Automatic annotation (TrEMBL):
Pfam families: HTH_5. Keywords: DNA-binding, Transcription, Transcription regulation. NCBIfam families: HTH_metalloreg. This is Transcriptional regulator ArsR family. It comes from Clostridium aceticum.
Length: 110
C-alpha cells in the first residue's frame, strides 16, 4: 500500500501530472520539458526525480542528454489499483449510525 500511495502522491502534483501527459506523447529531455512547461530546468529535474523514485518515469541516456519516458505498465497498474479500490463494496457491519452526544452529532461504527 505504501508503494501505491507513493505513486499517487507523485502523480497528484499538477506540474508532475503535466510532465506525465507530455511524456505520454513524446520522450523529452529536461530542457525540452522546461520549455514546454515554461518552468526552470532545475524545477523539472526536481519533479522528474520524484517521478523516477516512484517508478513512474525512466531516464534513457542518449549521448549527452537523458530522455525521459513513462513506464506505461506502472501507470496502468496504478489505474487498475484505483479501479479495484473504487469497486470495493461496503461491509454491512461497518454502516455508520448517527446519534447525538450532547448537542453534537457524531458517527458510531457498529
Amino acid at each position: 500500500m505504501d508503494e501505491f500511495m507513493g505513486k499517487l502522491k507523485a502523480l497528484a502534483d499538477e506540474t508532475r501530472f503535466k510532465v506525465i501527459q507530455l511524456l505520454l506523447t513524446h520522450d523529452y529531455c529536461v530542457g525540452a520539458l522546461a520549455k514546454q512547461l515554461n518552468i526552470s530546468e532545475a524545477a523539472v529535474s526536481q519533479h522528474l526525480q520524484i517521478l523516477r523514485k516512484a517508478g513512474v518515469v525512466k531516464g534513457e541516456k542518449r549521448g549527452y542528454f537523458t530522455h525521459y519516458v513513462v513506464d506505461r505498465e506502472i501507470l496502468k497498474k496504478v489505474a487498475e489499483d484505483i479501479i479495484k479500490e473504487a469497486s470495493r463494496m461496503p461491509q454491512e457491519k461497518n454502516k455508520c449510525q448517527k446519534h447525538k452526544v450532547g448537542k453534537k452529532q457524531c458517527c458510531k461504527m457498529l
